[in-house]
Amino acid sequence: MTKFAAKFVKDESGATAIEYGLIAAGIAVAIIGVITTLGTNLTGTFTSVATEMV
């Protein structure tokens, strides 16, 4: 049982997957932030164009 526990503690095979998952989550948060900001700016632009056309 102690050999199993020692082997389990030394096993790092899942660490890489977790790191890639964190990187992907960070990129997703950045993309969502950019799209939200861009969408707000485009809404303002289209509103001002529509106001000028009327």
Show unreliable segments: none
Strand content: under 5%
Q: What sequence of helices (H) and strands (E) makes up the elements?
A: HH
User: What is the terminal-to-terminal distance?
Assistant: 79 Å
Structural class computed from helices and strand pairing: mainly alpha
Count helical runs. Answer: 2
As a whole number of angstroms, the C-alpha radius of gyration is 24 Å
Question: What is the overall pLDDT average?
Answer: 89
Kindly summarize this structure in a few lines.
It contains two helices and no strands.
What is the fold's blueprint, element by element?
Elements: H1 2-10, H2 13-53
Question: Explain this structure to me?
Answer:
- It is a single chain.
- The protein is mainly α and 54 residues long.
- Helix content is 93%, strand content 0%.
- The chain has helices at residues 2-10, 13-53.
- It starts with a helix and ends with a helix.
- The mean pLDDT is 89.
